[in-house]
Design brief:
heterodimer; A: alpha+beta; Aldehyde Oxidoreductase, domain 3; four-stranded mixed beta sheet; B: alpha+beta; 2 helices
Amino acid sequence: MVKITDSSINIEKLLVQVTKPESGAVNVFIGTTRNHSHGRKVTGLEYEAYLPMALKTLEELQQEAKSRWGLHDVAIVHRVGKVQVGETCVFIAVSSAHRDEAYQASRFLIDKLKLVVPIWKREFFEDGTVEWSQQTHEQTTETRHNS
Amino acid sequence: MKVRVKFFSIAKDLAGVDETVVEIPSGSSAETLLDQLIARNPRFVDWKPSLRLAVNQEYVRNGHLLRENDEVAVIPPVSGG
């Protein structure tokens, strides 16, 4: 399942959903909101999504991971709206028969999510300024090499 | 022909609106539309290399030909996760 929500993410419930009787491995990635960005103190964050496309893109990634690694189940949940520092902003869980597939699929999903899913982060700084998080071209290239 | 253009993140700040309808010649490509947006609003110039376009919720290449009533999204570098 894929979901974009403005409420907090219920990790335990998702874990139960993803874990299947035939699974021997469940890999979880939890992205949390940092209290700093490029040396400046962050007091809060806000995510914006192009909702229909973000859901469609997440669904495609889920299908690709399932068929590539023969996963039993996938859950990808991303927050939108205001998120407090330290909260879970993205949750990815995958289940499979063995751990290798789960590790690889989990890494694939978060890397691809950060590259293609139309979601944007805005950071609120201690000094009162608000900025869209700017991923530089170099970072984008680096992520591509890693994926 | 008319297409609906949606702006997100920094592109929305630059455009000053989150959505607009643009009249372009029939058979225009995605890049033609982007150039027209830039011509109208020079604040987009510096961003052109990093902007991607999606048509009807699907990323497209610059040469993609647009159709009447397409929903075109101007997508700055994404920063989810």
